[in-house]
Amino acid sequence: MVEIRLLSKTDWQGLYDIISEVDKELVGMFSETEELVEDWINSIELGVWEVYVATLPQHEIERELNRLKWKLRFWHRYKRNQNNIVGLVTLYGDWEEDEEIQKGEFDIGITVAKPFQKKGIGKELLHFVCNRGEKLGYLRATLWTRIDNLPMIKLAKKVGFKEGKTRTRFGYQWIQFTKELRKKEEKE
After folding, report:
1. pLDDT of the residue at 164
2. Which residues contact 106 (CB under 8 A, 6 or more apart)?
3. Span 67-92, mean pLDDT?
4. Which distant-in-sequence residues (6+ apart) come within 8 Å of 113 by Cβ?
5. Residue 168 dihedral angles phi and psi, to the nearest 5°
6. What pLDDT was estimated at residue 67?
7. In this predicted model, which residue has the larger pLDDT, 27 or 102?
8. Pairing of strands 49-55, 3-6
9. pLDDT over 90 for what percent of the chain?
């Protein structure tokens, strides 16, 4: 059973482990892992910058890793962490600081550790962050992904996101997905 909770300072190692395994160019992270972790943990501002982690009970992690042992290559080993973090999702809604975010919307970042992908964790994280954004009064959720990140594109569509604009950034083609959180009559 996945538990989703707000990141805490004691999650430093777990966050480091999961981010260090990510293909940073694929998800748009261009800073060193340690710098990202420090920044994320120390700059939480509820309603504007929030980071949530997905955790699993230790017995579920062990069961899944044992099941996948023969599939995992030495370069895709899951780094066990004491807090059992297997995924994360971010909510960023500072439209005054980021010209790409419009008033009333927030941007999402998401990643799930490789051995735990395609298990519904990403879907739960997206539903969670969209519900959180709606509770905070946001009207729209957005996320950017590279056009070659087919698993993320499929997941975004499955959760109700619609394809939007494209851009080239850092030498890659990106596509934005948006999801309206409330109907027009509810916005007014």
Report:
1. 95
2. 91, 92, 93, 133, 136, 138, 140, 141, 142
3. 72
4. 18, 21, 78, 85, 86, 87
5. -110, 130
6. 75
7. 102
8. antiparallel
9. 48
**Tokens 């939480």 sit at which residue?**
44
Q: What is the mean pLDDT of residues 39-47?
A: 87
How many Cα neighbours within 13 Å face the side chain of 94? 10
- In angstroms, the CA 27 to CA 145 distance is 6
**The tokens of 73 are what?**
């290559």
Q: Beta-carbon neighbour count of residue 87 at 10 Å?
A: 23
Domains, the chain: 3-143 (3.40.630.30)
The predicted model gives 98-121 an average pLDDT of 89
pLDDT of residue 74: 43
